[in-house]
Amino acid sequence: MKYILSALLIVSLLAFAGCGGDDDGPSAREEFINDLAQTWWIDQSDESVSIQLDGQEVTSIFADFEITINTDLTYTTNSDILAVESFPWPQSGSFTLTGDLKELVRDDGLIINVELTDETLLSLSFIYDSGFDNAGGRQQAVLGTWLFVMKKR
Model's pTM, two decimal places? Predict the structure, then answer.
């Protein structure tokens, strides 16, 4: 009887020891994508957000710009409603993330530096040059170094 109880105790301990150890939670990449997958926008009443082109403040020109990033690594923007003739963001597209999660590569090949601050601010910076043709023939107006600092909607 003593051996049967000992055997049952050992089997029970082994059964409990095997529970719950398989799930280590989301990877750093999955967490980053989940944090990134939001709608980000330019709220002109918030001084922490801005858009700069070659170091010059151009936030007011692109008022209320927003980008929605999805967990499937696609995005949509409201660039079609902006009252500007050209803009370096198409209405929609997809991207990949680099292994270090510091850059995303848009489907047109544009490499964008990405930084999340406290999960509430998103900074996107890139150099838009003549190799990209999303500006609809008005490329000169959008060529240069861009910095977008947007907040979560």
Answer: 0.78
How far is the CA of 4 from the CAs of 8, 11, 17, 98, in angstroms?
Answer: 6, 10, 20, 56
Do residues 135 and 142 touch, judged by C-beta distance below 8 A?
yes
How far is Cα 25 from Cα 89, in angstroms, rounded to an integer?
34
> 55-77: per-residue pLDDT in tens?
999 998 888 899 999 999 999 99
For residue range 24-36, list pLDDT tens digits in order.
899 999 999 999 9
Copy the structure tokens of residue 88. Answer: 């370096």
Residue type, 142: V
Q: Collect contacts of 113-116 with beta carbons under 8 A, ≥24 apart.
A: 114/36, 116/32, 116/35, 116/36
* Alpha carbon distance 119, 100 (integer Å): 17
